[in-house]
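Internal ticket #5521
Category: modeling
Description: The requester needs a full-assembly model to guide mutagenesis choices. All entity lines are attached below as received. Residue total reported by intake: 828.
Assigned to: D.W.
Attached entities:
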Amino acid sequence: MTVALRTVGLGKRFGDVDALRDLDLEVAPGEVLGYLGPNGAGKTTTIRLVLGTLRPTAGRAEVFGLDAQRQTVAAHRRLAFVPGEANLWPSLTGLETLHLLGRMHGNVDTAYRDELIDRFDFDPSKKVRAYSKGNRQKVVLIAALMTHADLLVLDEPTSGLDPLMEREFRGVVGEAKARGQAVLLSSHILSEVEALCDRVAILRAGRLVESGTLHELRHLSALTVEATFDGTVPDISAVPGVSAVEVDGANLHCQVTGPIEPLLAALAGTGVRSFLSREPSLEELFLAQYGS
Amino acid sequence: MAPDVAIASLTARRTVRSAAVWGYAFAAYVASSAYAFATTYKTPGARAKLAEQFGSNAGLNAVVGQAHGIDTVGGFTAWRSLGVLSVVGAVWALLTGTRLLRGEEDSGRWELLLAGRTTRVRATALAVGGLAAGLVPLFVLPAVATYAVGLRGDVAFSAGSSAYLALALVCGAAMFLAIGALAAQLAATRRQASMIAAAVLGGAFLLRMVADSGAGLDALRWASPLGWVEELRPMSGSPRPWALAPVALLAFSCAVLAVQIAGRRDVGTGLLPDRTHARPHLALLRDPLTFAVRLGRSTTLGWLLAIGIGALSIGAVAKTAGEAIADSSTYADLLENLGARGVGARAYLGIAFLIVATLVAMLAAAFVGAARAEEGEGRLDNLLVRPYPRWAWLLGRVGVAVVAVLVAGLLAGVASWAGAASQDSGIGFTTSLEAGVNVVPPALVVLGAGVLAFGIAPRLVPFITYGLVAWSFLVLIVGGFVDLGPWLLDTSLFHHMASAPAVDPRWGTNLVLLALASALVAAGDFAFTRRDLVAD
C-alpha cells in the first residue's frame, strides 16, 4: 500500500538558520501521527514543506507518492489542511468561505459538511470578521474535513476551541481514521495526542529526536518511583540506573532507567511504608525531551 | 510622563511618515506653480489676459474654485493650489484617520493598547493628538518652499503670506483627519468608516462646486468645509482669516466628539449597526478568477470613478486652457519638450493625459499590491493548499487587472471626449478614445514590473510599483523644464508614451511596451512558482 505521507531527508534553511534538518517521516493510511515539539522546533515548517508553500533546501516530501513540489496540484487533491491560525477574508460569510474553499477542492460531501456545521454548533451566516477565534477555526476545520481527503494535515487544529468542541474534534478525527484517512497532527495538547495518535514523533531544534508508538517511547524512558518511609530515607543515589533523586521529609521521588531490581534490593529492609512505580505520563515524557 | 503617551507618539510616527511624503509633493506643486507663472507670464498684459480667460471659465471655477486676483503670481499660485491640494489633503487625512483608529481596532492591536494603563477616552484623545502631528510636515514643508521660491524677485512672497497660504492648504487635511476620527467611532469597520468620511468629502465638494458654478448660489459656499477653505483667499490681496474660525470649530468639535463616543461605546463596535449576518452570494465564488473579481470590484469602481471624473474635468477645461497656453512661448517650449505638438485644446490634453496615465498606472500598481496583501496577510495559503496551480492564480489576478486597466483607459478617453464636447472644443471621439487606449501600455508595464517584483522580492512590491510610477512622472515633468539628457528621460515610462491626443499614438512603441509587459509578467509568474510563500 502506498504511504500517505513520506518525507525523505527533508531540510529547510532560512538564511543561516537551520529550521529543519534531515527529516524522515512516514504516515500510513488509517494512521494518526502526533507531531510534537516546542515552539519554533520546525513543526509548521515541516507542514509547509509538505504543502509545497515552502521549497525544501534538502530532500523531498511526498503525498501518496506525489512530489509536493513538482506535482503540487495532484498532491493537493489527496490532502486537506487545517492551519493553526485561520486567516480568512473578513467580508465573506462562513458559508461563502466554505463554498469557495469547497469549490477549490472540488470534492465535497455536502451532507457531511452540514453535519459538521451542526456538530460544531457553527453559525455559517455570519461574516468572518464577526467570528471569534474559535469560530474562525471551525471554518477551516469544516472546510478540511468536508472533503474526506485521504490525508489530513492538521497544524494545531484545535487552537481556540472550547472543551466541548475539542471533544467533537476528537470524534471526527477518530471517524476519519476509521475510514482509512491518514492524519498528521501537530499539537501542544498532549491529552489530545494521547487520545488520538497511534505514533508520535518529537522534534527539537529542527531535528527528529524521538519517534515510535507511545508504548515504545514509554518503554525507552525512565520509570518514576515514589516511596514513603517510616524512618529516615536511605541514600540511594549510588544505585545503578537511579537518577533525579528528590527527598522531602519521609518521601522519596526518583527516576529509574533500565532494570528496577537494584533499587528494590537497595530498599529492602529500610522501612518502606508505600512504594509506587509507574511509567511516565506523556507530559513527563515530553517535558523531559523539551527540557534537556 | 504617563506611560500611555506612547500611544500618541506611536500614532504620530505613523502619521508623520506619510504626511511628509505629501508635504514634499505639496511643496513641489506650489513652488513649481509660482515659478512657472512668474517665468511664463512676464508682462501685466499677458497676466490680465490669462486672468480673463481663466476667470471667466465657469467649468474651471466650479472644479478648482473661484479665482481671486489671479493676475498676480500669488493669486494664481494660490488659486491653482488651494482647490486641488485641499481635496488631495482631505483624502489623505480621511484615509489616515480611519486607518489609524478604526483599522487598528479591526486588527485587534487597539485592544492590546487599551489593556495597558490607559482608558478608552485617554487613548483615543492621545491617538487623535498623534494624528494632528501629521499636520506639521504638511504645513511646514509647503510654507518653506513657498517662502523660498518667494525670494525670487519676480515672485516676491512675504514670509507672512507664505505661511498663510500653507495654513490654508493644511485646513482640508485638518478637518478631515478629525472627520475620519469621528467616522472611525461611528462605523464598525475601517471600510465603512472610510466610506462615511469620503461621502462627507464628496458632499462638501459638490456643495462648493455648485456655489462656484456662477449660478448665483454663492451663499452655499459657507455650507461646505471646502468652501471655508476657499474663503480664506490666500495671496488674493483680500484675505479673510476669519474663515479659519469654522474650520477650527469643525475640526475641534469632531475630534472632541470622537473622543466622547470612544468613551461610551464598546471596543470593536460602532454607533452604527454593523451587518454581521449576510445572505450568501455565491456567484463569484466559483474559482480564484471570479473570486479575484469579487475582491477587487469595489476598489476598482472607486478608481474608475476618480479617473472618469478627472478625465471629464480636463476635457471640460481643455478649450480655455488651450487658448491660454497658445499665447505663451514658454508653454510652447514645455509642450515641445514633453513631445506635445499643435495648439489649443489638443495640446493641453496631450499634457493633461499624463495625469490620466499616472492614475491608470497607479490602478495597475494597486492590483499587484492587493495580490501581495493576500499573500502577506496569510489568506492566499487557503487557496494554494488546495488543488489549484500557483501560476494560474497569479495569472488570473493579472488578467483581472488588465481588464480593469483597459476599461480605465477607455473610460478616460470617453469621459475626456464628453467634457471637451460640452465646450465645443473640436476634439473627435476617435482621437479621445485613442488617447485613452494610449495610456494602457505604460500601466501594463507597471503591472509587469509589479508581477516580477512579486515573483522575486514580494515585500518590495509597493516600493517598486508606486516608485516606478512616481519616478516616471517626475522625470518627465522635470524634463519638461530642464534638459535632463536622453538617458535619464528614457528611464521614464511615460517618455515612451506619445502625448496623445496632442500627437497621434505611436502604436509600434505601444506594441513594444506590451511585449515588455508580457515578458515581465511571464518571468514574475515563473519566479512565483519557485519561491516560498512569505508572510508580512
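Resolution: model delivered.
Comment from assignee: Chain B has a mean pLDDT of 90.
Ticket closed.
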